[in-house]
Amino acid sequence: MDRKNRSNCPISYALDLIGDKWSLLILRDIILRDKHFYKDFISSDEAIATNILSNRLKMLEYDGFISKTRDTIDRKRFIYNPTEKGLDLLPVLIATMRWSDKYSTEIKQRPPSIEMIRNDPIGFENRIRAKFSNTPTLLDRHH
Amino acid sequence: MDRKNRSNCPISYALDLIGDKWSLLILRDIILRDKHFYKDFISSDEAIATNILSNRLKMLEYDGFISKTRDTIDRKRFIYNPTEKGLDLLPVLIATMRWSDKYSTEIKQRPPSIEMIRNDPIGFENRIRAKFSNTPTLLDRHH
DNA sequence: CTCTCTAGCTTGTTTTTTGCAAGTAACCAA
DNA sequence: TTGGTTACTTGCAAAAAACAAGCTAGAGAG
Questions:
Q1: Strand B66-70 to strand B78-82: parallel, antiparallel, or no bridges (unpaired)?
Q2: Which pLDDT does position B63 carry in this prediction?
Q3: The CATH number of the domain where A15 resides is what?
C-alpha cells in the first residue's frame, strides 16, 4: 500500500497519489455527483471493474482522501465521503472541467455543472464545499 | 493513436487524454520549467523511459497539446512547445501545485514557483502565459 | 435457516509500462 | 568522406496493471 514518490515535485507528488485512470473519477462521483455507495460508483458510465474499484477505494481511504463508514440506516453498506484533503481537490476538478469545456468539441451534452462553473466558478466551488461543511453527519440524511 | 473517450464527462475527457503517469509531467517541464528538448525531459528527476517519452511526445503532439519543430540553429534536434490548448492546462497545474503545497508534508524542498503561486497565483499564471505570448518565435532565442 | 442484497475477492487473460539495447538521422570535424 | 557525437526512435522481454467474469462473505429480512 506504499506510495512511490518519483520526485520532490508538487505535480508528481499529486500524480503519484491520484494520477491513475480511476481515482479522480471516484472523487468526482463523491464530490460532484453525490455518490456515496459502492454500487453508485459501479453504475457510472465509465464502467470500472469491481476489483479496481475496491482497490482504489482502499487506496483513497488509506491516503486520506475519503472516509469509509458503515451506514447506520442500512448496515449492509458503507458510506464513502470526502475528507478535507479530498475536498481540497475541488479546484483541480473545476480547472479540469473548465479546460474540457473549452476543448471537448466532440462531447455532445455537457453536465449542468459546466454551465454553473462557466457563470460563477467561485460560487460553484463554495456551494459544493457548503454541501460537505456540516462534517460527517450530513450524509446520514441522504438515505 | 486513437483516444478512447470512456464517457461524456469533462473530467474523464481530460483524463483520457492526459490522465497517465507521464503526460502532465512533460507538460510541466515545457510550461513551467522552460524545457524544450528531448534530452531535457530525459534529465528530469522522475526518469522516464526513452520509449515512453517518445510515445508521449507523439501523443501530445497528435492531440494538439504541444508542437514539434526542428531547431533552426541545431538542426539535429526538435523544439517542443506548448500550444494554446496545452498552455490552457496551466490552471490545472497550478491548482495541483497548491493542493500539494498544502498536503505534501514529506516533501522537503519546494520549488520557488510554489512560493510565487502562494503569494500571487493569478500573477504567476499571467507571467507564465506572457512567456509564451509571442508565439513560435520566442523559442529561437533560448539557444 | 435460507434468501437476497451489497460489497467485495479470485482467477485467468490482455494491455501497458518498464528497462535496456540497438538502430537511424543530422551535423560536425578532420 | 569518414568517423564521432548528439538527438532521438524502435524493438524486445519482463514486470506490472487493467480487465472480465464468476465466486464469496457478511448483514439483515422473512
A1: antiparallel
A2: 95
A3: 1.10.10.10
Instruction: Select from B136, B76, B74, B96 the least CA-distant residue to B14.
Output: B96
Residue B2 in this model has a pLDDT that exceeds 70: no
Contact B46 A104 (CB under 8 A): no
pLDDT tens-digit profile of B88-121?
999 999 999 999 999 998 766 788 999 999 999 9
Give the integer Cα–Cα distance in Å for B87 and B106.
29
Residue B87: inside a domain: yes
Closest CA to A11 of B30, B8, B60: B30
User: What is the tens place of the pLDDT at every residue in B54-94?
Assistant: 999 999 999 999 999 999 888 889 999 999 999 999 999 99
Band of residue B46 on the pLDDT scale cut at 50, 70, 90:
very high
Range of the domain at A37: 1-82
Å between B116 CA and C15 C1'?
41
Q: Give pLDDT, residue A141.
A: 34
Interface test with A, best of B2, B4, B5, B15 (most A CBs within 10 A): B15
CA R_g for chain A: 16
- The number of folded domains in chain A is 2
Is there a domain that residue A142 lies in? Answer: no
Whether residue A16 has pLDDT greater than 80: yes
Q: Is residue B5 one of the residues assigned to a domain?
A: no
Whether residues A45 and A100 fall in one domain: no
Q: By the CB < 8 Å criterion, does A115 face chain B? A: no
Residues A99 and A66 in one domain: no
Of all helices (H) and strands (E), which one includes residue B96? helix B90-103
A63 and A126: one domain? Answer: no
